[in-house]
Amino acid sequence: MTDECARTVTWDETTHNLSLNRPWVRNVLSYRGIPGENGSSLTSVMNRFETGTYSIEDVERVLELGLIGAGMPERDADALLNQYVRTKPLADNAGIAAGLVVALFLGANKETA
After folding, report:
1. Which band of pLDDT confidence, cut at 50, 70 and 90, is reported for residue 70?
2. Which of 31, 41, 59, 106 is 20 to 30 Å from 99 by CA-CA measure?
3. In terms of Cα–Cα distance, which of 54, 73, 62, 51 is closest to 19?
4. Closest CA relative to residue 42, chosen from 108, 97, 86, 110
């Protein structure tokens, strides 16, 4: 089964799968969300990316959940975040995180579908 909401990210020539469209990840987002300005729901997170009011936690948590949702163990996801997200300028990964959130709402990129 193909995950229409999945995306990929390439860090140092290695491509990693990302998906927020897994039951465990959806439950985390439903129950806990990602706390921040104007709420913790996924629509609040998407709004923060759209308005440029996203936080470090928004970027890191979306990418972490995306890596875990694509099947990566939490420990490995944390190591990748330490290497490619937490040591880089925030904007370098904000677009990737925002795209992943939008992908959960819209699915496959219509240009490549």
Report:
1. very high
2. 31
3. 62
4. 97
At 26 the three-state DSSP class reads helix
Stretch 55-73: mean pLDDT, rounded? Answer: 97
- What is the average per-residue pLDDT within 36-45? 93
Residue ranges covered by each domain of the chain: 7-106
Note the pLDDT tens digit of each residue in 2-28.
Answer: 899 999 999 999 999 999 999 999 999
Task: Report the C-alpha gap between 45 and 40 in whole angstroms.
Answer: 7
pTM over cut 0.85: yes
Residue 77: is it exposed, middle or buried by C-beta count within 10 angstroms (0-12/13-18/19+)?
A: buried
Number of H helices, E strands in the chain: 5, 2
Cα–Cα distance for residue pair 83/52, rounded to 1 Å: 24
Mean pLDDT of 45-73: 96
13: left (phi over 0), alpha (psi -120 to 50) or beta: left
